[in-house]
Structures are given as structure tokens and as C-alpha cells.
UniProtKB/TrEMBL annotation:
The keyword Cell membrane applies. One of its GO terms (cellular component) is plasma membrane. This is Probable membrane transporter protein. The lineage of its organism: Bacteria, Pseudomonadati, Pseudomonadota, Alphaproteobacteria, Rhodospirillales. It is a multi-pass membrane protein. It comes from Ferruginivarius sediminum.
Length: 303
């Protein structure tokens, strides 16, 4: 059954979109990630224009993050003060990122930038996830103790220090502010929450306890993704609400089944599987970038 997507300006099968949302929801439930860094490439694969895929996926990030952060608030796993500092940087970064998105779109380079960004980030993240999963698997079998996650470096001597009691940290506010800014730009250009980069950075760079990292990350992602969605809709008109609703419906259903599977698999195995999935997606994007298109020329109609 075909449905017309008014902003994407194409018709796609309803069940394909529901299935795609269900697949990403399932992976999100299994691996504990938002899935935005996989959803956007998959939308591009089925023909959705990259600018629409990015902006629409940012809308889905808001819904999934709200659902996740409520549970973390109930368990007291959100450092609100840290989240606000990250959020300030994120709002500035996402606003600048949407303006950069519009500039690149006007120059006709946004499709290339989106694809190259995904190839770069998915390649790096996929390799790191796979390598860390293999190392954890080897450590578990050899009973090797884990190294200390966080060590103080020269960046911890920066000025404007603040005390974050929930995270038991006394560090420069410039660190989370700059991190939030970078994630904001990333959210605008790639349509992701940025959790797959923000969470490791909060653990290894800021030194936050793992227990409060995910909830704090989701707290700031809600507002950053909402800002990206609003600005994309106003400035670039690239948010397709019909597409977003179908993906969201499938994602809610898929996440329920994914969480059941996750409880039966060890963490290191999950990291390896996710790393492989990310690398496969990266390989497909890279292939499409370097392969010769079927139609070398197209005829445009000027209105």
C-alpha cells in the first residue's frame, strides 16, 4: 500500500516504512542506542532525499529520548546541572548547525556532506565498537581486570570550574559546553541525537559515573533535537511529518521486542554485533558514493 510523502515528494510502501521503523526500534531495544545513526542511512537507501531523512529523523529522536529519560529521572540517574551546561552548548551548536545545513543546501553540497559525514563517523564508531567488544570478550575469558575508565589530563586544568555534585566532579564548564556544542552541530547535519558519541565522551573525557551518563545524555538530547526539528521545519522545510509518524509507530513496537532479546545476550557480544551492523551500513554508503550511477545524466525542469 503506497503513501505519498509530501515533503520527500515520493511515494513509498506503508509497510516498508513501518518495518523500517520496527527494525530500528528493535535494534534500539537490543543495543540501547537511539538508532538515528542507522535510520538516516536506511532512509537514504530507499530513496528519501538526504536533507529530508536528516530533518525527519531528528523529530523521532525527540520522542524516543523523552520515553527514555523519564525512567532515568525516576531512578535518580540524571545530573540536571551537567545536563543544562551540555544543553546550552547544544542549543548554540544546533542553531549554528542548521544555518550551516541551509548554506550547504543552497550551494548544492548538502547531500555529499551528509553522506561523507556518515561514512566517516560510522566507520570510526563501528571499528571502535567492534574492537572494544572483542577486547571485552577476551578479558572476560581470561579474567583480566578492566583498566580505569577515566584519567585526568591537561584539559582538566581549564578555567571556569564548576562542581557537579551528582556526578562527583569539579571540572571546567568549558569542557561540557564545548562537547554540547559539537554534538549540537552533529545533530543538525546528521539528524542524530549524538548519544553514540556523547555517552563515551562523558565517561572517558568528563569522567562521569556510568550510572548517570545515559540519563543526562538523553536529558539534553531532547531539547537539542527539538531545536533542530523546529529550525529545520522553519528554515529548510525538510521535516516530513507523515514519514516521521510511520517510523515512530514502527519503532515503538520494535523496541518492545528488542528489549526482550537484549536481556539474553552478554554486553560484549552486543557491542560486537552493533559494530558489525554499523560497519556494513558504512560500507554500503561508501559504495554508493564511489560507484558509477545508473543514469549519468538527468534532465531538470525549471519552473
Amino acid at each position: 500500500m503506497q503513501i505519498y510523502l509530501p515533503i520527500a515528494e515520493l511515494s513509498l510502501d506503508v509497510f516498508l516504512l513501518l518495518g523500517l521503523g520496527g527494525l530500528i526500534g528493535f535494534l534500539s531495544g537490543v543495543f540501547g542506542v537511539g538508532g538515528g545513526f542507522l535510520m538516516t542511512p536506511l532512509l537514504i537507501f530507499i530513496g528519501v532525499p538526504p536533507p529530508v531523512a536528516v530533518a525527519t529523523q531528528a523529530n523521532n529522536v525527540v520522542a524516543s529520548s523523552i520515553s527514555g529519560v523519564l525512567g532515568h529521572f525516576r531512578r535518580g540517574n540524571v545530573d540536571v546541572k551537567m545536563g543544562i551546561v551540555l544543553l546550552v552548548g547544544g542549543l548554540i551548536g544546533s542553531t549554528a548547525g542548521v544555518s550551516l545545513f541551509k548554506l550547504l543546501r543552497d550551494l548544492g553540497q548538502i547531500d555529499l556532506v551528509i553522506n561523507l559525514s556518515y561514512v566517516l563517523f560510522l566507520g570510526v564508531i563501528g571499528l571502535l565498537m567492534t574492537w572494544e567488544g572483542i577486547r571485552a570478550l577476551v578479558r572476560r575469558r581470561r579474567h583480566t581486570p578492566r583498566r580505569k575508565l577515566h584519567q585526568h589530563t591537561w584539559v582538566h586544568g581549564w578555567p571556569l570550574k564548576m562542581r557537579f555534585r551528582k556526578s562527583r566532579l569539579y571540572i571546567s564548564a568549558l569542557l561540557p559546553l564545548g562537547l554540547g556544542f559539537a554534538i549540537g552541530v552533529l545533530s543538525a547535519i546528521m539528524g542524530v541525537g549524538g548519544g553514540f558519541i556523547l555517552v563515551p565522551a562523558m565517561i572517558y573525557l568528563l569522567g562521569m559515573p556510568t550510572a548517570v551518563v545515559i540519563g543526562t545524555s538523553l536529558f539534553q538530547i531532547i531539547f537539542v533535537a527539538a531545536n533542530v526539528t523546529l529550525l529545520q521545519a522553519i528554515q529548510n522545510q525538510t521535516v516530513d511529518i507523515v514519514l516521521a509518524l510511520l517510523l515512530l509507530l514502527g519503532g515503538v513496537i520494535g523496541a518492545q521486542y528488542g528489549s526482550r532479546v537484549a536481556s539474553r545476550l552478554p554486553g560484549d557480544t552486543l557491542r560486537i554485533l552493533l559494530g558489525v551492523i554499523v560497519l556494513v551500513t558504512c560500507g554500503r554508503l561508501l559504495f554508493e558514493l564511489v560507484s558509477v550511477p545508473v543514469d549519468l545524466y538527468s534532465i531538470g525542469v525549471t519552473k
